[in-house]
Amino acid sequence: QVLPQLLDIIPEARLNLIIYHLRAPNGDPQEAFNLLEGVEPSQPREHILKAVVHAVVGQQQGDGGGARESLQTAEQLFHLVGASASECDTIPGRQCMASCLYLRKQFEDALIYLKSIKAYFSADDDFNWNYGIACAAIGDYKEGQQALLSVHNPKYRSEFTYLSWLCRCLVLNGDPVSAWEVYTRQEPTSDTFNLLHIIANDCYKQGHFFIACKAFDVLERLDPDPEFWDAKRGSAVGVFQ
């Protein structure tokens, strides 16, 4: 209520209002993006804030051209700060370089920076989310699972990206039953169907045929695709081998 009245009086008011829209439960990232029009970054923290806004909005926009442009802008701004002589050895600088590499999907390189600052963010949900997914993306499923289970924000824990990576880690770490339990706690949606598909395929590949059979059985009842029947039959044979 107060900050909008101060936008043209105190420069920091605009920055704080942008942060509010990024972090508050009832905040609006698109409004944060609109507020950026009045900001010409001159300090590292302002470049970082602009990068974060572009990254958030770009991810929300999906696969459109505007999304790619926003993510590219975020990547460039993160690199600008992370590679600068004054910031490259600071914690924010390393976060920025990790974020740049993360957006490029260069997860192995991103982890070099994330591991260097991990001790400072052991209880940070945002860090554990990014660290866990980066670990899982390079095949370190044990470390990835540990980091993802350290995320406590209910909103984060309900997102499909989180659930799919967590279930993959659980299955590949030899705990398909827990992955199945994660699925059964979800409300039926298209994302839940996709999650079940991931669990079914990963369990089949890893030889966890009982859970694979259960998953393909549900998939077949939801969508009578002959491939699901064949996979269920193959899983059943695997159970009795």
Automatic annotation (TrEMBL):
InterPro entries named in the record: TPR-like_helical_dom_sf, TTC26
Keyword tags: Cell projection, Cilium, Flagellum, Repeat, TPR repeat
Transmembrane helix as UniProt keyword: no
GO (cellular component) term, any one: ciliary basal body
Keyword 4Fe-4S: no
GO biological process, one term: intraciliary transport involved in cilium assembly
Location within or outside the cell: Cell projection, Cilium
Alphabetized GO MF terms: intraciliary transport particle B binding
Cleaved signal peptide residues: none
Annotated PANTHER family: INTRAFLAGELLAR TRANSPORT PROTEIN 56
Family to which the UniProt record says this protein belongs: Belongs to the IFT56 family.
Protein's recorded name: Intraflagellar transport protein 56
Name of the gene: TTC26_2
